[in-house]
Amino acid sequence: MTLLAHGADTLTRDALAVLQPGFEGTTAPAWLLRQVGEGLTAVGLFGRNIASPEQLAALTAQLRAERDDVLVAIDEEGGDVTRLEVRGGSSFPGNLALGAVDDTGLTRDVARELGRRLAECGVNLNWAPSADVNSNPDNPVIGVRSFGADTRLAARHTAAYVEGLQAAGVAACTKHFPGHGDTNVDSHHALPRIDVDLDTLVARELVPFKAAIEAGTKAVMSAHILVPALDPTRPATLSPQILTGLLRKELGYEGLIVTDGMEMNAIAGTYGIERGSVLAIAAGADAICVGGGLADEATVLRLRDALVAAVREGALPAERLADAAARVRALASWTRQVRAAAAPGAPQEGSAPGIGLAAARRALVVTGTAGPVTAPYVATLAPVANIAVGDETPWGVAAELAALVPGTVSGVFPEGATAADVLAAAGERTVVLVVRDAHRHPWMAAALEALVETRPQTVVVEMGVPRAEPRGALHIATHGASRVCGRAAAELIAGV
């Protein structure tokens, strides 16, 4: 009887260990602390959980009081995708800006500084970097989150980012395996499909992941994408051929495999999160990320019970679940060792608080010339934000330019706005037109074209992928829309 009870307890703890759930609030709810005490080994943080660095440090301390090796994960890519600075915009440019500079030493230093700030707050697993090669310029979800469309460039910067982040004691989670760059569908909404042959995948998509593995990435995140050349029926997250056959056996990866968010419609809308989670663990995943939209105890218990039932019914080998749980605990143990090795209270080596803005300035690509503007009108053409970025993080140059140029006025124009709308609002002021991926939005491209024809002195700032031809008296490509990218552009416009 004792052995049976012990076995059931071990199975339940293993099922809890492989979950990475989110939660609501800026303090740890009682249910989360209870589940951590019962075996939950990881939690995921999102913008809703973060108000300040001090509050975040207190939150992670709460969790560590329950379990000192708990993995605290976050989706902090820097650039457009920030949770640490979700309400103000990131202090770091994102991957495309770093790829545009193409200085791997800079990328390593930026990642290390970002990691240092996370570690100071008690975060020890970052769902970053994105190793996707943005080979499809119309990609609606990757874009500036990629280092670029060049495979070798993406590979060397992925490796540098992994090295920098982990030098700060924060585990990197390289994503989205086997590569989300050649998609035209956002997997938050539906299941993307990549129809390329195996030779292309090997030569393009897999190269940055190989570089990340060689750099020692502690985790890899799977993509909810269908790649028929590898598996014609199941998306990568649920595919034994992709996770076990390709990632484990062919590429020799031994670290943690984490799924992308299982509540995303590519999985939840097709398989359901319970069945999807069982299939993912069976396929070779070790950790189930389910924090973005489902953040309560009921979800955790549903997934725990689904995994336990699958083992008892023979649908999931107990050894596979135990192996997954062991990999989670091994990473948790690494983070505890790293933290113990850091001298308490001592400033970390390599602190570089201004490196984000310095990198953003270096990433600017400028076409044309214009004198410093006076009292401009900043018109931001705002597309609908993709879910990975979110709509609560401010972006643009209006606030930054207003801080530098007295009398700056601004307005935001949603999808469907025209040049006439902008001109009516601007009056006689010089227009600073801010766009984001103008090449992907016909309404935006049309407004830009008409505005520049009417007002040739218009200054254009492209804060997405700079695919369209530069237009305007002055055209600035920032390669991202983080706060420091906006600041760097504003400094140039203001002539400071």
From TrEMBL:
The keyword Iron-sulfur does not apply. InterPro entries: GH, Glyco_hydro_3_N, Glyco_hydro_3_N_sf, NagZ_Beta-hexosaminidase. Pfam families: Glyco_hydro_3 (PF00933). GO terms for molecular function: hydrolase activity. Keywords: Glycosidase, Hydrolase. Belongs to the glycosyl hydrolase 3 family. This is Glycoside hydrolase family 3 protein. It comes from Streptomyces flavotricini.
